[in-house]
Amino acid sequence: MAFSAEISRTNPTCLLFLVDQSKSMAGPFGGEQGKNKAEGVADAINRLLQNLVLKCAKADGVRDYFHVGVIGYGTEVRPSLAGTSNDQPLVPISAVANAPLRLEQRKRMVDDGAGGLVEQSFRFPVWFEPTSGGKTVMNGAIKMARVILSDFISTYPGCFPPIVVNLTDGKPTDANPLDAAVDLKALKSTDGNVLMFNAHLSSSPAPSVCFPGDEALLADKYAKLLFRMSSILPPKLMSAARDEGYPIVGPARGFVFNADLVAVIRFLDIGTRVSPGR
Amino acid sequence: MPEPSLSWHSLLVPKEGHSLDECEDAVRGNTAAGRFAIADGATESYAAGDWARLLVDAFVSAGPIENWLGKPRMAWKQQTGSQAVSWYAEDKFKLGAHATFLGLTVASGEWSAIAAGDVCLFVLSRGSLLKTFPMTHSSEFSTTPSLVTSRSGPANWKEDRGLLAPGDTLLLATDALAQMLLASAEAGKFAGNDLTAIDNEDDFSLWVAMMRSSGRLRNDDVAVGVVQ
Fold first, then answer.
1. Regarding predicted confidence, which is higher, B4 or B191?
2. Do A269 and B152 touch (CB under 8 A)?
3. Does A265 touch chain B (CB under 8 A)?
4. Per the CB < 8 Å rule, is A122 touching B86?
5. How far, in Å, CA of A113 to CA of B1, rounded?
6. CA–CA distance from A39 to each of A130, A223, B133 (Å)?
7. C-alpha–C-alpha distance, residues B176 and B217, integer Å
8. How close, in Å, is residue B182 to chain A by CA atoms?
9. B chain contacts of residue A9, beta-carbon cutoff 8 Å
10. Which residues in chain A are closer than 8 Å to B90, comparing Cβ atoms?
11. B20 touches chain A (CB under 8 A)
12. Which domains does chain A have, with CATH numbers?
């Protein structure tokens, strides 16, 4: 059965993030008042990486279940994560864990164990600062992703299929990225085809949409394009999304509009999960 | 009164690709007290193996008395808190540890059990499977079972009890093995009887390796305890 390979240190999978850093990202973010899209994207990639590290963190360190890369696209298209380069675009998740640019003191509300909430401070890691400049060379970023994942799959041919997560305001300027996305998703390990998920951060204040099964739910033409580029969630991920209360209808795709994709990190199976309320 | 002539053995095999130090299943028995326990630390939580071991030790030494979780909760904080230095260890530590758990008491010709999550008790009578608790079918297992947390708050316990007859066997198993045993029973070829006859690590490791390579047992830590 596809999408059933164990994710382990000996058989890791790859998460490759594509981050839109183009000029248009300086525009306002409809998903959160007072923020621009570049801030929204920086927050999104930092939260994705934070959650991925936490997923793999054990008392004896961070286990390398995932190899990770970030391709920034704007003024140029290049691997942007500290410690990566064109020659070595991926690093194991433990290297990401230990190399944030800085740590921010933040506060959050957590369950107090007695049915209430209590404020808790924590250190939030920042790997990416907001940035915007240049064109939206999404097509180029997807082509680079294909080369990187082709190499990864040749090293780990039996891996759980690598996942590409694209964070963008959805207005490509180099070429229509649909064909490049089709080529990317045609890559496969013995466990299935590469998955591409998209998070659309728009200036539109339209309500957020998560994992839709039908593009008719989307008003924006760029949202429809990103929806078409997105993979249908594999059965296990779809079932995890349903268990978390997402209203999954039909062939739900790995696409969100003015929302984040952190839930996808939770859905990846490395063993027993700790679900809120359980 | 505990049963006068109970025997107990337990066996543990880590997930393939992991060392025994990394094993997050724990199993303990105390025949004199008639108490037995099995736990499985949740993969995604911090120091989950430590928590599982503290839980089974606490149950076996004190039993399900009021607030019996208080002592292992305090011990887990003291034991693991000082190691939580990095941002991610500190964050995971704050979230606490989690484990599935089953505690079994045998006394006066009866068994009673409390359970949270998908560890499972199998009651066998002369080779026949009489009952399973709390899991009843191989399709019930998931990656989000009910868990006992090291943080404060009540656990979501299930409870059951039953009578014991001479010759009965009680088998405790963590999730991967429990799921395989239930599937074998559903297929009419219950594999638990072969298992109760294995009482040493080498034979158990070989049996587990054979079950994994045949695809019947998924790759996970495996713990089993047998009361006879």
1. B191
2. no
3. no
4. no
5. 36
6. 5, 19, 51
7. 6
8. 19
9. 17
10. 122-123
11. no
12. 13-267 (3.40.50.410)
Question: Which of A91-100, A103-112, B201-210 is least confident?
Answer: A103-112
**Mean of per-residue pLDDT scores for chain B:** 94
- Chain B residues touching residue A114 (CB < 8 angstroms): 152-153
pLDDT value at B106 more than 90: yes
| pLDDT (0 to 100) of residue A151 | 98
Residue A278 confidence (pLDDT) above 50: no
Instruction: Report the percentage of chain B scoring pLDDT > 70.
Output: 98
- Helix intervals (H) in chain B: 48-62, 70-80, 87-95, 175-186, 192-196, 201-213
A257-270 average pLDDT score: 88
Measured CA distances, B49 to A59, A155, B95, B134, B195 (Å): 10, 32, 15, 22, 24
Percent of chain A at pLDDT exceeding 70: 98
- Which ipTM was obtained for this model? 0.90
Tokens at A262, concatenated: 């952190």
Q: How confident is the model at residue B89 (pLDDT cuts 50, 70, 90)?
A: very high
Of the listed ranges B20-29, B101-110, B152-161, the least confidently predicted one is B152-161
* Bridge-based pairing state of the strands A13-20 and A163-168: parallel
Q: Which among B40, B144, B152 has CB closest to A273?
A: B144
| Residue that is written with structure tokens 């994705």 in the block | A48
Residue ranges of domains in chain B, CATH in brackets: 8-227 (3.60.40.10)
pLDDT of A276: 46
Cβ atoms within 10 Å, residue B9: 16
Please tell me which of the candidates A6, A54, A275 has its beta carbon nearest to residue B91: A54
Nearest to B98 among A60, A240, A274 (CB): A274
Place of tokens 């359970």: B115
Could you tell me which chain A residue has the CA closest to the CA of B84? A59
- Strands A195-200 and A163-168, how do they pair? parallel
